[in-house]
Structure prediction request, 473 residues.
Amino acid sequence: MHWICPFFARASCRSHHLSRFSILRAFSSQLQNQVTEEPVNQPLPQLGAAAEKENMILKTPKGTRDFNPKQMAIREKIFSTIISCFKRHGAVTIDTPVFELKDFLLENYGEESKLVYSLKDQGGEELSLRYDLTVPFARYLAMNKITNFKRYHIAKVYRRDNPIMTKGRYREFCQCDFDIAGQYDSMIPDAECLKVMHEILSALQFGDFQIKMTWEEVKNELVRKKGVLPEAADCIGEYIQLHGGVCLLKQLLQDPKLSQSKLAMEGLEDMKLLFEYLTLFGIVDQISLDLSLARGLDYYSGAIFEAVLLHQQDGHLKESFHVGSVAGGGRYDGLVATFDPKQRKVPCVGVSIGVERIFSIIEENTKISREKIRTAETQVLVAAAQKNLLAERMKLISELWDAGIKAEMFYKKNPKLLNQLQYCEETGIPVVVIIGQQELNNGVLTLRDVSTRTEITVPKEKLIEEIKRRLMK
Prediction:
């Protein structure tokens, strides 16, 4: 492939256009003289806008934020952990538009629909920004007539909520979803979703997490919003306040009142089966059955789950820094059918990781521990020990890039060696290749270990091999 710089292409016919250039210059001079004769005391429309801009306060919209390089390094590590788990479980990834047809979204969120951002395009379509990744996934399945699918999706969603930035609650935030769609034997996909949630939260080293919601919250919901009589709510409360594991299930299965309800017994048998699978996955001790747990979204149709952070092992997390749920999910067997003209059901279950709340906790702990965060992954700095070695540095760094090595160099012709070495220590770059004129004459280069400050001489033809050997340690 041959690339031609436009400047040189124009330069080759410069003489041909010289007369034209002279005419244009003369014309522009004449035009300039005419312009200077115009009145200068006329108000310019741009002045008002400029004055307004001077008084403008630069900030991000309410409920949103920028992320600096250190913060992004933390976030990328979180995403890497989550994606690695999703892929380990065989999920593939998709993406969907940031907005959907308004009617598709609003009918699936119940009371939460008031938090959906709505907009209208020039063609008259009523649109809304996606509120979560679950409804777009159901639409995707129905539209493409997919009946079996295991997918993960990481993307931004939007909510007209009252933001609490210190608790990781935003109007624009990222969700990390893992879902299994298809007709499978009961509770096997549900167990895997809980396993995925457990693996991710354990890998991120949060400490203890469990499902928790008090009965009083549920009672208020039933009495004030759903119209249930207080006496009936108290009767329900006998069971709602219960939470536990296998022992609780045995107790409920033997309950004489529940045994009279076919629906209740079917649900308990499903829970029993789920806990058997969780035992096989080795996580049953970390899972608690809580009959009080309730979610506000209309599309959930079966078991739901939620992980709440209790405390951290290192004690860094302050009691006032409460972030609530860090993951949640559940079964939504009827959602896909709402998008399908023939109302064909595709059973689904999924989990969503609350990455923003997780990030808030990790960021807070990083500040407290004063942990040093690397914002770049540079492995090698190509440095010069003397002046006039820019060409040699550029040739060498190109060879390193071609070999897949992450490398940097100073954008100066003659940088000071001390400044280059200090930069490596400040940013955590582990290896420095130092070019000197005498070394070049002898066909060798100096390799410096930044942490130990030890140096060795390496033949130029073996440099890449030696660097890769050191980086693999």
User: Anything to note?
Assistant: The first helix runs from residue 6 to 11. The CA atoms of residues 90 and 150 lie 7 Å apart. Confidence is low (pLDDT under 50) at residues 1-40, 213-219, 313-321. DSSP finds 16 helices and 17 strands in the chain.
